[in-house]
């Protein structure tokens, strides 16, 4: 039995920085792009700038329904001096989007015309050259940059690419993440629980968040707290995937084997971060790929995903993957946190008279309920020992779809 | 040729209300739920409350690594009065999450022990009953409501359901949306453009947004501006899908057939809304299902999706599907809008010295570029004729992943 039971308390920002530096040295972030058909590129992230292959519109068009005319010919028209025009000789009917022949340089909208039939109209206002005409390339010029690298292919970005004749785009390859759930005390949540066993449910957190953040997750079957089994699983993960996450065994108890497995296969940059929940996180690099030992309490698992895996994936994509919306509110009950440690306090929000009340939830790191019921998170920085009741505090909003906070507007 | 070329100018909120009332009368929002395995329910929306089938944890467990003891037996222990305990007789070793036998009622953490081997330890502080013990049902009690109806199955919600033995959940069935692109001047963007033809790119907006908002989109092949073809397509859509969108032909030009097709098949509640872009929108109901005639300019298509299709889907799901994040900034150039009409001004944002500058983009409704380049939208309400340069204005943020505004925090 190991006597040394204390972990490091590396500050959160330093832990991230040290790990990212090791990954930069390993060239982990130098990704090879993937070419995909534009029509299948929704929500992917560009790996290189995208340039228009043709102008949009590619020819000059009418911007309205009406008649195409020569502006010079309409010069004298006025309210009391109607100008008669004949179809074919003086004008043609055009609809919005119609190609405008070089003969004409202006369009008069149908609402501004007097006419008895389609052959002759009267105009009571002069047209100016270019009136209601969409010039070629008005929207995008040929060769213009449509999208920078690291941009999400929103619906409108996909539409713009297709309009500009870009039928394939270079996107960042989706990272493949291998998740290894461990724990002799755990069993599948889908079967009856044998005595002394608990349902393994963190896999749902991994699958759900990795999917949200654009990664492809592969789940290893649940394994026991056995160093050889864990090492074999991690090694297989390093062979076949980009990132390996082991849950849990990250502390320093008898069955906490993750850090030593990582040390055997590569280097451990960080073991223990001064945050709560999530303190016993292990960050490593092996075969130029990131390894994360993710603490097992559900809220610690979530905190590790948010604090390390999300920034890792955002750096991989060079693109933000989740909005960091915050809201200020009044703290309804004081919260305490040890100095030198970042604390993630789950809170429920209540909107009253235009203001927001912030109610800290009482759950421990084991309380999945505190995450399910939370509207947001109040981060207590390492330099503070807490916040007092009545203080105005910033709350990071979670993306849980509780109506009152997703629907309502708030000014920044 | 029709002489009457003016559309209604129904106020935006009234248009939505009138259409929703017709849909309520048609019982459109009374949806039949669908039962899915919890492990496949990520991001779905609950159709009914979800109740815990078992307590979490389902037995009493140790909350720490250490030894399980009887609190009463430790009563006299103190710093200068160490209490010797023997394994088996007085304590057992436990790891976090281990089932706690009824013999013991407290756990002492390994860090607080003096011991030479695993058989005997010394305790220098009394334990209290329940210390480091997770009682049965601490997280969720059996029968407790885990999720209300209309809640999104976030990763933590899925984990909570599995922990509580809920292996299937009742979710709102994904609405099936039929999209009918029309326009004799249009052609597939994937092939060379014949003379006088333009690439049809609004389908990308429909597919992309409907997917984001949890709907299943089916695309009809592009058809010409022919009333029989359009009527046949809409009729097929009404047979096989929940919602039918026709793009475009919604104005009152020679080739604008959508409203008359809708009138033939059902009722038109609204034709023309006082908003820009998107004025010529057509809202109808046929066979108890919603019909939308979506204007053809890309920004008008987008505005119609945001203003009518998104609220329709949110009402269908009884759950918000997109966050309404706003940000205040200083307007860099005045914007003008006709009184009585809501104007959606696409803007680019710039962060300077803690403040935000709001730059209106100049694109017309035809300018896809104004959407691609926009960070947000400034809504000019019907009651205002615009905003002056230098005014503080609220901007609705778009979800385009431009780093500076997704990553940075802003207080509400």
Q: What does this molecule look like?
A:
The structure is a homodimer of 412-residue chains. A 6-stranded mixed β-sheet of chain A has the order 16-13-17-21-20-18, sandwiched between helices. The first copy, chain A, has helices at 12-25, 155-163, 202-212, 227-240, 258-265, 298-317, 368-372, 403-407; strands spanning 34-37, 50-51, 61-62, 66-69, 83-86, 92-94, 106-109, 113-115, 120-123, 133-134, 145-147, 168-171, 176-181, 186-187, 198-199, 216-219, 243-247, 267-271, 275-276, 282-286, 289-294, 326-331, 335-336, 342-352, 355-360, 376-380, 386-387, 392-397. Chain A is an alpha+beta fold. In chain A, helix 3 packs parallel to helix 6 (298-317) and helix 4 crosses helix 5 (258-265). Mean pLDDT of chain A is 92; it is low at 1-5 and 406-412. The first copy, chain A, has 8 helices and 28 strands. Chain A has 4 domains: 12-31 and 173-317, Molybdenum Cofactor Biosythetic Enzyme, Chain A; 34-56 and 138-171, Molybdopterin biosynthesis moea protein, domain 2 (Alpha-Beta Complex), CATH 3.90.105.10; 61-134, Molybdopterin biosynthesis moeA protein, domain 3 (Beta Complex); 326-407, MoeA, C-terminal, domain IV (Beta-clip, Beta Barrel). In chain A, strand 24 and strand 25 (355-360) form a beta hairpin. Chain A is elongated, with a radius of gyration of 31 Å. At the A-B interface, helix 2, strand 15, helix 3, strand 22 and helix 7 of A face helix 2, strand 15, helix 3, strand 22 and helix 7 of B.
């Amino acid at each position: 039995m190991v006597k040394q039971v204390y972990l490091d308390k590396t500050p959160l920002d330093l832990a991230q920085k040290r790990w990212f530096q090791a990954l930069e040295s390993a060239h982990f972030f130098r990704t090879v792009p993937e070419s995909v058909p534009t029509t299948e590129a929704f929500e992917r992230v560009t790996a290189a700038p995208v340039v228009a292959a043709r102008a949009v519109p590619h020819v000059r068009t009418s911007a309205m329904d009406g008649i195409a005319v020569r502006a010079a010919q309409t010069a004298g028209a006025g309210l009391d001096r109607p100008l008669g025009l004949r179809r074919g000789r003086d004008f043609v009917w055009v609809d919005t989007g119609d190609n405008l022949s070089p003969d004409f340089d202006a369009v008069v909208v149908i609402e501004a015309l007097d006419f008895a039939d389609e052959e002759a109209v009267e105009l009571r206002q002069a047209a100016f050259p270019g009136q209601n005409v969409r010039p070629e390339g008005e929207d995008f010029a040929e060769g213009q940059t449509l999208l920078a690298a690291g941009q999400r292919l929103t619906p409108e970005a996909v539409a713009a690419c297709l309009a500009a004749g870009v039928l394939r785009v270079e996107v960042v390859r989706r990272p493949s993440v291998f998740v290894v759930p461990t724990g002799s005390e755990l069993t599948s949540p889908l079967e009856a629980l044998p005595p002394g066993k608990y349902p393994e449910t963190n896999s749902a957190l991994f699958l759900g968040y990795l999917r949200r953040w654009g990664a492809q997750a592969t789940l290893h079957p649940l394994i026991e707290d056995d160093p050889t089994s864990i090492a074999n699983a991690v090694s297989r993960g390093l062979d076949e995937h980009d990132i390996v996450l082991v849950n849990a065994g990250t502390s320093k108890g008898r069955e906490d084997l993750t850090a030593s497995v990582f040390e055997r296969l590569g280097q451990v940059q960080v073991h223990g971060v001064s945050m709560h929940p999530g303190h016993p996180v292990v960050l490593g690099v092996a075969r130029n790929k990131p390894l994360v030992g993710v603490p097992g309490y559900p809220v610690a698992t979530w905190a590790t995903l948010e604090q390390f895996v999300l920034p890792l994936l955002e750096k991989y994509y060079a693109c933000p993957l989740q909005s960091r919306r915050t809201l200020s509110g009044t703290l309804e009950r004081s919260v305490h946190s040890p100095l030198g440690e970042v604390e993630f306090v789950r809170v429920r929000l209540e909107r009253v008279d235009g203001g927001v009340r912030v109610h800290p939830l009482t759950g421990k790191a084991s309380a999945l309920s505190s995450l399910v019921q939370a509207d947001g998170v109040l981060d207590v920085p390492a330099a503070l020992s807490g916040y007092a009741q009545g203080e105005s505090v910033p709350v990071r909003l979670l993306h849980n779809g509780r109506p009152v906070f997703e629907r309502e507007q708030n000014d920044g």
